[in-house]
Amino acid sequence: MPGLEDLYREIILDHYKNPRNRGQLEVPPAVRADGHNPLCGDEITVYVELDGDRVARVAIDGQGCSISQSSASMMSQAMTGRTTDEARALLHRFKHMMSIADHDHSDEPGEEVPLGDLEALQGVVKFPVRIKCAVLAWNTLAQALDSAAS
Ligand code: ZN
């Protein structure tokens, strides 16, 4: 059995207790997407405001377990200021770390993106039922970016 300390790393707890970019943004100009993880009851709303091709602001609303909320907070911090291409590369890299990226891409476009603090979430992989919690905000962000592009 992997230890719970792998799941609740200090930085994860910090983001849970002090969530970054918590709140809502006006739609429009922002876009929003809602995500739901019925296995755990996590609900996440992600707001993204683009400035041209750049992610100017991200806001997170919703409720759920500590892993889902921490991951959303860390995602919002990691995505702010990136171009949409960089955001998608980081998204791919994160999902690859979580062992759920599709492996059809032989070129692995996100492989070179440094994860930084996000590596703290790697311990979640040892708890397969929690992977959906960690990835929820990221999939919801992808939906928001898709809706902004259409
Ligand atoms: Zn959860």
CATH architecture: Alpha-Beta Complex
Helix content: 40-55%
Q: How many DSSP helices?
A: 5
Oligomer: single chain
| CA-based shape | globular
Strand content: 15-25%
Radius of gyration: 14 Å
The secondary-structure element order is HHEEEHHH
Number of strands: 3
Structural class assignment: alpha+beta
What is the overall pLDDT average? 91
Number of domains: 1
Unreliable parts: none
> Which strands sit side by side, in order, in the main sheet?
1-2-3
Question: And the CATH topology?
Answer: Sufe protein. Chain: A
In CATH's first tier, which class applies? Answer: Alpha Beta
Query: How can the largest sheet be summarized?
Result: 3 strands, antiparallel
Distance between the termini: 45 Å
